[in-house]
Design goal:
single chain; 323 residues; six-stranded mixed beta sheet; 10 strands; globular
Length: 323
């Protein structure tokens, strides 16, 4: 039976190239480049809460890292190192093989080095800490939105939430629609390149993990401003066209999109569009930052409309993600 150390050596230890000291000592040693600030974030995936226990371990490995990469994308930071803390019910080597393949594969894509972590027995729980760098003073913060800013969103929203409804048996999807939605749910694309390209252009940014309204709401609170959204311009995933009754809920309040929502001065419209084009990512203007606190939205006729409840809160009263 493999020991904890054998498992770490087999599945997680790789030659270190960007750390002074990687896996194997009491701590890793890292040296940020001169003039850079460290951006550090942690995100935990809990079995039964954030994913179904039978989820493909390779996809789980990718997603555990992807959601962390997304946090750094939202800061405009360049991801460099990660720590992985795993609680495993048993030393299931087939599971570890697939999980580490997913995790390390995505890490390689983003040139992120796994430099440490912890491995223990317990109910399946995956916790990743990510470290990145951003030029000092240049990070995209939630508290930096200004009155008059455009509000932008990358990509399209709502497919992941529709995929989750499908998994829970709440919405029946065609095979092709299910495949598209589940790929967005299980394998989100962190918008790291866009976040980097927005440095010096965007004022505030956040990644959409809990739904557009909830996450934009965090920018508004931290920046002490309000927003007016033009609902017709919110880019809903095309697959939602076949589910008009769910369109607003999934696109506005569905979680797991991992797109970026950001604000920027009107004068930067052209440069933002070019930045998004250069990353081959769609960017759409969906509203304006206003002085009056709160979130208002109007439809294509310009009439104010009621908004769906705001996304997911683990300790609040809204619907839990896996039901
Ligand atoms: P300690 O006793 O100091 O906690 P461990 O025996 O837990 O150290 O870990 C040994 C080494 O393996 C450390 O460098 C630690 O960072 C690394 N490590 C442990 N678990 C993981 C993991 N799941 N992924 C990557 N590195 C890990
Ligand atoms: Mg340890």
């Amino acid at each position: 039976m493999a020991s904890e150390f054998d498992l770490i050596a087999s599945y997680f230890t790789r030659p270190s190239h960007s750390a002074t000291l990687g896996i194997g000592d009491d701590a890793a040693l890292l040296r940020p480049a001169p003039g850079m600030e460290l951006a550090i974030s942690a995100d935990m995936l809990v079995s039964g809460r954030h994913f179904f226990p039978d989820t493909d371990p390779e996809l789980l490995g990718r997603k555990a890292l992807a959601v962390n990469l997304s946090d750094l994308a939202a800061m405009g930071a360049l991801p460099r190192w990660a720590l992985l803390s795993l609680a495993l019910p048993e030393a299931d080597e087939a599971w570890l093989d697939r999980f580490s393949r997913g995790f390390l594969g995505l890490a390689e894509t983003f040139d992120v080095e796994l430099v440490g972590g912890d491995t223990t027995r317990g109910p399946l729980n995956i916790s990743v800490t990510i470290l990145g760098e951003v030029e000092a003073g240049n990070a995209l913060r939630r508290d930096a939105a200004k009155v008059g800013d455009d509000i932008w969103v990358s990509g399209e929203l709502g497919a992941a939430a529709l995929g989750l409804r499908h998994l829970k048996g709440e919405t029946a999807l065609s095979a092709s629609a299910a495949a598209a939605c589940l790929s967005r749910l299980h394998d989100p694309a962190p918008r790291v390149a866009l976040g980097r390209a927005l440095r010096g252009l965007a004022h505030a940014a956040i990644d959409i993990s809990d739904g557009l309204l909830a996450d934009l709401g965090h920018i508004l609170e931290r920046s002490e401003v309000g927003a007016h959204l033009d609902l017709a311009s919110v880019p809903a995933a095309p697959v939602l066209r076949d589910h008009p009754d769910l369109l607003r809920n999934c696109a506005l309040a569905g979680g797991d999109d991992y797109e970026l929502c950001f604000t920027a001065p009107v004068s930067h419209r052209g440069r933002i569009q070019s930045a998004a084009d250069s990353c081959s990512i769609q960017a759409t203007r969906i509203g304006t930052i206003v002085q009056a606190p709160g979130l208002k939205a109007s439809d294509d006729q310009g009439h104010l409309v009621d908004l769906p409840p705001r996304g997911y809160d683990h300790f609040g009263s809204s619907v839990p993600s896996l039901g």
